[in-house]
Amino acid sequence: MPKNLVIVESPAKAKTIQKYLGSDFEVKSSFGHIRDLPKKGMGIDLSNFTPEYEVSADKKKLVAELKASVKKADLVWLASDEDREGEAIAWHLAEELKLKPENRKRIVFHEITKNAILKAIENPRDIDQNLVNAQQARRVLDRIVGFEMSPVLWKKVKTGLSAGRVQSVAVRLVVEREKEIREFVPKPSFKLEGIFLNNAQQEILAKLKKDFDKESDAENFLNLAKTTEFKVLNVETKPGSRTASAPFTTSTLQQEASSRLGYGVTTTMRLAQRLYEEGFITYMRTDSVNLSQEAINGAKAQIISEYGENYSKPRNYTTKSSSAQEAHEAIRPTDFSVKSIGDVQLNKLYQLIYRRTLASQMENAKIEKTVIEIGNAKLPQHFEAQGEVIVFDGFLKAYGIVKTEDDDDENNEKLLPKVSVGEALDYKKITATEKFTRPSARFTEAGLVKKLEELGIGRPSTYAPTIQTIQNREYVDKREIEPQKREVVKMTLGKTGVKKEILEEKFGGDKNKFVPTDIGEVVNDFLINNFAEILDYGFTARVEEGFDHIANGDQKWKEMMTDFYSKFHPRIEDVEENADRANGERILGVDPKTGKNVHARIGRFGPMIQIGEQDDEEKPTFASLMANQNIATITLEEALELFKLPFDLKEVDGQPVSVGVGRFGPYVKWGETYISIPKGEDPLSVDQNRAEEIINEKKVADAPIANYKGEPVTKGTGRFGPFIKYKSIFINVPKRYDFDNLSQSDINELVEAKLEKEANRYIQQWEAEKISIENARWGPIVKHGKNIYKIPKKKDDSKYEADELKDVSLDEVKKWITAQDPKAFAEKKKPAAKKATTAKKPAAKKAPAKKK
C-alpha cells in the first residue's frame, strides 16, 4: 500500500508524475479547485470579508475519494502549480481534507521532469499563506465588484448584463480604439518610388526621401525628373547586428502564436498546458524572462553540438516589469535534445518555444547595410535605396531563415547591385502614388493581451479567461467589417512622359479583430460615467500591485478589502439611486413620411430603430439593426431602409416567399424554411429572380445524396463541420472521408456506425415521456428532456448494473427524477392573455427622496 499520496490539479499531470515516482507513491488529481465561492449568492460576509467556500456538487464524489485515499496514506504531498492559484488549490485541499501540518508537505516545480520532481520531494515547504491570501483577495474583490455592479446594469441598462473589474477595462480598451477609428480623418500624401538601371541593366528600387502633400507638387517633381540625368551621389556601407528576442513569457507566447500560427489566446494556453503536463516545457503561466543555469547549460550544449562553438553566447535576461516574479522561469523546453514531438498541433507551438529559447542563447547576427543615394543637384529631393547582406547568421540559424522573428516583409531589404559614386543611372519608371494615413489598428486577441500587460492590468493566469469572458458576454465580437472604397491618384513617369490614372482602393475592412457590440458600447459608457475610478487604467493596475504586496507579505488582505469597499459601496448606492437609464439613444432625424423622430437605441431584444415616441397616440414602429450596423454610426437613410423589411415576393412551388432580417442576419423565407442570404449581400437588393436562385440552391443542397434502407440521406456543413443526416440523426463526417464524393459504401458505413453507437447509448427509452436511461462517459444516467439525473444506489447501498437497469419500470425512474427535482413533472402555467391597453405615457422622473 502506498505510504505517500501526491495530489495535483490535472489527470494528465498525475499520469506524467506517476511515471517518475515509485510504488510508495500514489498520484491523484483534484481536477482544479475542489471548492469555491457558491455559484448562487455573493458568498462573502461583508462585515469582515470572510468568504463562504463550498464544495460544488460535481466535486463531492471526488472529495470523498480523496478523503478515503488520505486515510490510507502516511503523508500527503500537495503538488499543485507554483502560482497563486496553485497555492490556493493546495490550501483548499488541506482545509477540506483536514490535513494537519505534520501530515502534509507542499512541493512546487516549474517543469514536470524526473529531476525536478525528485528535487521538489527533497525540498518541501508548507503552504505559503501570503500567496493564498493574494488569491483570496483577487477572488473576493472581483466577486464583490461583479455582484454589486451587475444589478445596477440590470436596472439602468438591460437585464442579464454583467460587470467585472478586469473585463470592463478590457472592453473599455476595445471601445476607445473603435471610437478613435471612427473619428480618424485620413490625410493624403504622395509617395514616390523609382526603378533605376545601372550600366549592367540591373534594377535598383529606390524611394524618395520625402513625401509630397499635394498632387501638383508630386506632378511637378515627375516633370522635372523627366529631363534629369540621375547619378549615384553616395554609397555608404555600415556594419550592424541583430539580437535575438528574450525567451517567452505567457504574454509574448500568446502574441507570437497569434501572429505566426494564427492561434487564439485560449488555444495557445490549452496547447501549452498539454506541453507542460506531458513534460515538454516549463510552466506556461509566467511573466519572467529568466532562465535557470541548468537551462542555459542545456541550450549551450545543444548549440555547440549542432552549430559549433562560435554560435554560442550564453546570456540571461532581466524582466522590465516591476511586478514580475523573478523566482519563476521563462517558458522553455525541459530538454533541448528533444527537437520535435509527434503531435502535429502541439509540435507547432513547441517549435516556436524551442527556437525562441535556443536563439536567445546564440550569437548576434552580423549584417552589412548598404545605402545608395540617387539624384541630381537640380532635384529638391533625392532617392534612397537600401539593402543588406548577412555576414554571419548567428541566432538566425536556429530559425532556418535570414530574417528575425520581429521583422516584417517591408524591412527585409534585398541585396543591391554594385555601383560607384558618380555612376550615371537611367530611370526605368518613377511612380507617384496617393496614400492615405491609417488609424490605429483594431485589437487582435494577442494585441489586447499585450496592451493589458503594458498597463499592468491582469497577470499571466488572467489573460485568457478575460479575453474569453468579454466575448461570452457579447460585449465584443470578431464580426467581419466590410471595406469601403475610395479613389486614389497614380502618376507614372515613363519614357513617353507622365501618365495619370484614377484607381479604386478598398480600405477600413477587418477580419478576426475585436469590435465592440452596441451593448458593449452602452455598458462601457455607463460605467465610465458612473464608475470612473473602477474603469480607470491606473486604478486597476494599482489593485494588481496591492495583490502583489499581499503575496509578498507587505499588506493584510482584509485591510485592503476594507479600504476598497468603504469607497466602492457608497458609489454603488448613489448610482443606483440617482443615475439615469442608459440605452445609447441617438436621434437620427425626422421620418419624411410621418414627421416623427427616428431614434437608434438598445431595446429589449437588442439594437433597434424606433419611429415615433412612446407616449404618442399611435404606437411607435420598430426595426432591428442588421449585424453589420451600429447605433453609433447608422445614418437616417440607412435606418429608414430597414422599415422596407420584411417584404413579400411571389410564391414559389405554391409556398409564400418573403425577405427579412432576423437574429442570425438577412434571410429568404420560403414556406416555413429560413434560408440565409449570403454574407455581404444587401437583402433589399433581393428580387424575385434572386430569391428563386437562393431557394433553388437550398433545394440542391438539401437534395438526398443517397438512400439507406429506403430512407433519404442528405448532407450539409454545420457548426461542427461536415455532416450527413439520416431520418432525424445528424452524423459527423470525419476528415478521412472525401466529403464532396461520398460513395454509397461510405454512407452505409457512417450510418451503421452511428446507429450502433445510438443503440449502445440507450439502456431504456420512453420517447413519449422524453425519458431515457443512457450510458454516459462516467456510467449510466437518467435523462428527462435536456436535464440529467443521477441513478441512486440500491437498498443494499450497491450500484445498479446495466442489465438490472433494463428491468427498471418507468414509475420507478420517475420517482428517481422527482427525488432530485420535485417540480420536474409539474404542469407549466400558461401565460395569461395580454389585455388590450392604450399606450402609456412615460412616468415623470421623481426627484431623489430626501433622507429623514
Task: Give a brief description.
This protein is an alpha+beta fold. The protein contains 22 helices and 34 strands.
Describe it:
With 852 residues, the protein is an alpha+beta fold. Among the domains are: 4-127, Rossmann fold; 188-235 and 407-437 and 476-511, no CATH class; 250-363, Topoisomerase I, domain 4 (Orthogonal Bundle), CATH 1.10.290.10; 586-644, no CATH class; 647-702, no CATH class; 706-760, no CATH class; 762-820, no CATH class. Helix content is 34%, strand content 24%. The chain has 22 helices and 34 strands. The strands form 9 sheets. A 6-stranded antiparallel β-barrel has the order 9-10-13-12-11-14. A 4-stranded parallel beta sheet has the order 2-1-7-8, sandwiched between helices. It has a 4-stranded antiparallel beta sheet with strand order 19-20-21-22. A hairpin with a 4-residue loop joins strand 31 (762-766) and strand 32 (771-776). Helix 6 (165-183) crosses helix 14. The longest helix is centred in the N-terminal third of the chain and has 28 residues, at 129-156. The protein is globular. The relative contact order is 0.08. Its EC number is 5.6.2.1. It catalyses: ATP-independent breakage of single-stranded DNA, followed by passage and rejoining. Pfam families: Topoisom_bac, Toprim, Toprim_C_rpt.
- The CATH topology name of the domain at 4-127 reads Rossmann fold
Radius of gyration from the alpha-carbon trace, in angstroms: 34 Å
Number of helices: 22
Q: How much β-strand is present in the residues? A: 15-25%
Strand order, largest beta sheet: 9-10-13-12-11-14
| CATH architecture descriptor of the domain at 4-127 | 3-Layer(aba) Sandwich
Q: What is the molecular shape?
A: globular
How helix-rich are the residues, as a percent range? 25-40%
Just give the CATH class of the domain at 4-127. Alpha Beta
What ranges have pLDDT less than 50 throughout 5 or more consecutive residues? 322-326, 402-413, 831-852
- Write down the overall mean pLDDT: 87
How many DSSP E strands?
34
Tell me the span between the first and last alpha carbons: 72 Å
Structural classification: alpha+beta
Profile the largest sheet.
6 strands, antiparallel, barrel
